């Protein structure tokens, strides 16, 4: 593990380009569906720009089945680091009907992720101007899952979720590129106490400001050269220790294939089916905890096992975590539940191949959404505590309701709908959802990716030639997230200012 004490002036910046804003793509195309959800234009990529802002939420500190009460502690976050929603540990969630062929999860190698994680928030985006304009519902409709309530009179098998529209509107922000380059106001020299490995590309605009006693490696893999504007440049002085260059790569840390025999590496599949006789726990105050799950996702299991790859209906949900079990080192988890770490870090990428054919629910619960598959991510503390349900005072047990983080990457919101939407949920903090949509893959497989990098989230349809390799170079990631200002297929939805 690399220790980086200060390298604030070596930012990894997104490619200097911009695509169509969500508002532009919705202009003249917005329409309300019969189920109350708004849809605009079909796209292949959506980028949520700048998810790094300070905020607060209530972290769960206790779940007491004897009293039926949950305890919480308010915390604040800076907009960087593991406490910030979506930048810390995430769990991955799947709802049928869905056939999953492959999954692969990548993180940026330590050489670059350490640099990026310490990027200074004081470096302004000189190349862009921000604006604000209130939007109507189709440009930013927030959606929320209705939490199923545990029964206190009969033993529930599991809880599922349906979607309902939130009529609340909010302001959508977007920005426009200017002609100036990217550089910051001058900073005081900083010191690094250990060697830090950085990408090989160097920007001479930073190095040129150093004195003869300074060892400099200015690295911006997205830079096309030094800024030409007259704005002040960054002066970075790194004392004595040498900063070495090494190629940046994204390493696959987890993978899954459903091809017989199904195989998972670095992934554990769980579900809200806890039963103390096998795995996890159950009580009448809070229902089922997370547990190991059978290959079809429908029954509790005693041990982790392979997922068969099919979730038959929307009644079946499954959660995926890393294979690193919690050993007193996770954020608070419900006692006796099956507990694993999620995937941490500001730079991580999730790729999946799935198919979402039409199948109705087979049970008698008429309140559950039917034929509405979804792929989404949660702050891993949410399912480890209680994904669905409130305490006896009707206060949600998890941190979800106070904004600790959810990203719906590909979610069908209405029964039988063939349009999938995306949304960031951070209640009480900056959040938003794009009403431009992805086409549901019916009768065919689709490769799809979600990339968290540069404090943005990009959800994108992937070319069929993508083969989930052991490593990805930075150039491949850059191409996946790059904006095309002449394309109507990439929507840009700004979260932060």
UniProtKB/TrEMBL annotation:
<feature type="domain" description="Cell wall protein YJL171C/Tos1 C-terminal">
    <location>
        <begin position="250"/>
        <end position="479"/>
    </location>
</feature>
<feature type="region of interest" description="Disordered">
    <location>
        <begin position="116"/>
        <end position="163"/>
    </location>
</feature>
<feature type="domain" description="Cell wall protein YJL171C/Tos1 N-terminal">
    <location>
        <begin position="45"/>
        <end position="107"/>
    </location>
</feature>
<dbReference type="Pfam" id="PF10290">
    <property type="entry name" value="YJL171C_Tos1_N"/>
</dbReference>
<protein>
    <recommendedName>
        <fullName>glucan endo-1,3-beta-D-glucosidase</fullName>
        <ecNumber>3.2.1.39</ecNumber>
    </recommendedName>
</protein>
<feature type="signal peptide">
    <location>
        <begin position="1"/>
        <end position="19"/>
    </location>
</feature>
<feature type="compositionally biased region" description="Polar residues">
    <location>
        <begin position="149"/>
        <end position="163"/>
    </location>
</feature>
<dbReference type="InterPro" id="IPR018805">
    <property type="entry name" value="YJL171C/Tos1_C"/>
</dbReference>
<dbReference type="InterPro" id="IPR018807">
    <property type="entry name" value="YJL171C/Tos1_N"/>
</dbReference>
<comment type="similarity">
    <text>Belongs to the PGA52 family.</text>
</comment>
<keyword id="KW-0732">Signal</keyword>
<keyword id="KW-0961">Cell wall biogenesis/degradation</keyword>
<dbReference type="GO" id="GO:0042973">
    <property type="term" value="F:glucan endo-1,3-beta-D-glucosidase activity"/>
</dbReference>
<dbReference type="GO" id="GO:0071555">
    <property type="term" value="P:cell wall organization"/>
</dbReference>
<dbReference type="GO" id="GO:0009277">
    <property type="term" value="C:fungal-type cell wall"/>
</dbReference>
<keyword id="KW-0326">Glycosidase</keyword>
<dbReference type="Pfam" id="PF10287">
    <property type="entry name" value="YJL171C_Tos1_C"/>
</dbReference>
<keyword id="KW-0378">Hydrolase</keyword>
<feature type="compositionally biased region" description="Basic and acidic residues">
    <location>
        <begin position="116"/>
        <end position="128"/>
    </location>
</feature>
């Amino acid at each position: 593990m690399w220790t980086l004490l200060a390298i604030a002036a070596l930012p990894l910046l997104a490619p200097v380009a911009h695509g169509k804003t969500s508002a532009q793509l919705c202009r003249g195309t917005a329409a309300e569906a019969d189920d109350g959800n708004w849809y605009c234009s079909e796209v292949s990529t959506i980028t949520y720009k700048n998810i790094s802002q300070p905020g607060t939420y209530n972290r769960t500190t206790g779940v007491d089945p004897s009293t039926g009460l949950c305890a919480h502690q308010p915390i604040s976050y800076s907009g960087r680091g593991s406490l910030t929603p979506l930048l810390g540990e995430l769990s991955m969630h799947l709802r049928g009907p869905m056939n999953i062929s492959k999954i692969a999860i990548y993180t940026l190698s330590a050489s670059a992720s350490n640099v990026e994680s310490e990027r200074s928030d004081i470096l302004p985006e000189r190349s862009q101007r921000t604006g604000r304009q209130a939007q109507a519902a189709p440009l930013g409709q927030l959606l929320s899952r209705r939490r199923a309530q545990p029964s206190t009179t009969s033993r529930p098998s599991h809880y599922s979720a349906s979607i309902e529209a939130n009529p609340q509107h909010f302001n959508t922000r977007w920005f426009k590129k200017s002609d100036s380059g990217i550089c910051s106001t001058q900073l005081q020299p900083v010191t690094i106490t250990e060697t830090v490995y950085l990408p090989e590309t160097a920007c001479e605009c930073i190095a040129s400001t150093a004195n003869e006693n300074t060892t400099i490696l200015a690295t911006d893999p997205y830079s096309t050269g030094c800024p030409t504007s007259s704005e002040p440049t960054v002066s970075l002085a790194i004392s004595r220790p040498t900063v070495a260059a090494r190629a940046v790569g994204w390493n696959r840390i987890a993978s899954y294939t459903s091809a017989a025999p199904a195989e998972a590496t670095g992934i554990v599949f769980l579900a809200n089916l806890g039963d103390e006789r096998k795995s996890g726990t159950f009580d009448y105050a809070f229902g089922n905890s997370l547990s190991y799950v059978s290959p079809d996702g429908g029954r509790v299991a005693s041990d982790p096992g392979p997922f068969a790859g099919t979730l038959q209906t929307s009644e079946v949900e499954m959660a995926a975590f890393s294979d690193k079990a919690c050993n007193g080192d996770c954020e608070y988890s419900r006692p006796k539940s099956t507990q694993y770490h999620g995937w941490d870090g500001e730079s991580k990428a999730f790729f999946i191949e799935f198919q979402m054919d039409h199948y109705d629910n087979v049970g008698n619960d008429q309140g559950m959404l039917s034929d509405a598959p979804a792929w989404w991510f949660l702050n891993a503390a949410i399912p480890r505590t209680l994904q669905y349900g409130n305490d006896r005072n009707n206060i949600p047990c998890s941190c979800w309701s106070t904004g600790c983080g959810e990203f719906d990457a590909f979610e069908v919101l209405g029964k039988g709908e063939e349009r999938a939407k995306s949304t960031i949920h951070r209640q009480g903090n900056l959040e938003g959802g794009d009403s431009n949509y992805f086409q549901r893959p019916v009768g065919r497989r689709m490769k799809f990716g979600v990339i968290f990098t540069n404090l943005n989230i990009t959800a994108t349809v992937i070319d069929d030639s993508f083969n989930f390799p052991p490593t990805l170079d930075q150039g491949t990631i850059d191409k996946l997230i790059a904006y095309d200002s002449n394309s109507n297929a990439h929507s840009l939805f700004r979260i932060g200012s």
